[in-house]
Amino acid sequence: MTIHETMKAAVVTALKSPWEVKAVPTPRPGPTQVLIRIRASGLCYTDVHLTEGGLIDLQLPSVLGHEPVGEIVEVGSAVRTRKVGDRVGTNSLQTGCGRCEWCSRGKMIYCADQKILMVHQFGGHAEYLVAEEAATILLPDQLSFENAAPILCAGNTVWSGLRAAEPLPHSTVAVVGIGGLGHLALQYAKTAGFRTIAITRSKDKIALSRELGADEVVGSGEELARVGGADVILSTGNGYRTASDALLGLRPEGSLVVMGAAGPDEDLVIPNRTVFPQMMVNRQKIIFSQQNGREYLHEAVAIAGRGKIRVLTETFTLDEVRTAYDRVAAGTVRFRAVLVP
Ligand SMILES: [Zn+2]
Ligand SMILES: [Zn+2]
């Protein structure tokens, strides 16, 4: 296979501006890196936050995309565990400093000196991507590229969020917001054996939520309380209001896991009538969580590889990226947009 000098990529040239599909130099792998021919690259709402600015500073120009999967087409001179032809994915975190307490503890996700896709090097919305050998994960043969891509961020986020809450075998898990993250969260919770409740105000998502594994569907935290409440509430939307409302249905010693980041101008507000007496008396927790370590990513990918997760995607070519972006920004994708270069 010939690898051309340039590749097509969706480039962010200025904040708050549409991405430009254009030719950029094809990246070359360093000694510890691999070159991946991208076969699918999921869009995440984080791409919208980054383009709009305010959450993380981008060095422009940048190529976004942190759900890339594909085949390895070239390996660096020091690469030992990956070979040309391997089907892999990678998530945003590439390396830590390797020297701090958190890197030493194997918890690179807390390192203050990380190298991450999109911010320090180009991300996956392109024909090729360079990734660290150690940051790639092998994909099960049964998992298609299109279905694998959203697991790298969305699937990893919801599964690791559920793990962070440490549910018990008999726990009830509620999912707030049935969208890109939420439709996966319902399925992960159900396939792990938990009684699963969807919280949604969209009438058109009630039947779908049941299909995806919800034992019950309710419209609010109060309604959740009326059906017995939940031990774990996974808040997956891009706003905090519904997360705060869902707290009304949290059981004693339960945890609310907030996974979707709101925009820079929205604060998480919890009314004091919820904090006291409910949350204090019942020793409830709020956990903030995003993508987490590779241990959980491995689980998320493996469960999907067993055919347990139906990833609902809409696919777009790189040339259609502006349409894909607009639909992600407007929240109208059912449920995860995937670029297929
Ligand atoms: Zn993401
Ligand atoms: Zn470090």
UniProtKB/TrEMBL annotation:
Its EC number is 1.1.1.1. It comes from the Bacteria. Its cofactor is Zn(2+). Keywords: Metal-binding, Oxidoreductase, Zinc. The keyword GTP-binding does not apply. SUPFAM superfamilies: GroES-like, NAD(P)-binding Rossmann-fold domains. It holds the Pfam family ADH_N. The keyword Transferase does not apply. Residues 13-339 form the Enoyl reductase (ER) domain. Belongs to the zinc-containing alcohol dehydrogenase family. This is alcohol dehydrogenase.
